Amino acid sequence: MGRSGVVPPSLSITFTGAREVQPRRGEGAIVFFPDGASTGGRVQLGARKAAWNIDVAWLTGEVKLKRAQVAQ
């Protein structure tokens, strides 16, 4: 399978993606296909007063990084 790592406790992480490719309950996955498509999804990383969205488009597999709104 792909790479994995550990998120430090100081970061919050939220994942939104396709349930069909979820490896286990409480884990998320985005699968990339040979034709360039993907299952798509969003990973949001937050720390204190900053947050970033990492969006993956399902049709093209394009990955975009964008500053996110921080919940007050």
Please explain how this structure is put together:
- The protein is mostly beta strands and 72 residues long.
- The protein has one domain.
- 0% of the residues lie in helices and 35% in strands.
- The chain has no helices and 4 strands.
- It has strands at 12-17, 41-47, 50-56, 63-67.
- The protein has a 4-stranded antiparallel sheet with strand order 1-2-3-4, with no helix packed on it.
- The chain is globular, with a radius of gyration of 13 Å.
- The termini are far apart.
- The mean pLDDT is 89.
From the structure above, extract its key features.
72 residues; mainly beta; four-stranded antiparallel β-sheet
- Biggest sheet character: 4 strands, antiparallel
The number of E-state strands comes to: 4
The poorly predicted ranges are: none
Enumerate the strands of the largest sheet in spatial order, edge to edge or round the barrel.
1-2-3-4
Rounded mean pLDDT score: 89
What pattern of helices and strands is seen along the backbone?
A: EEEE
Helix content range: under 10%
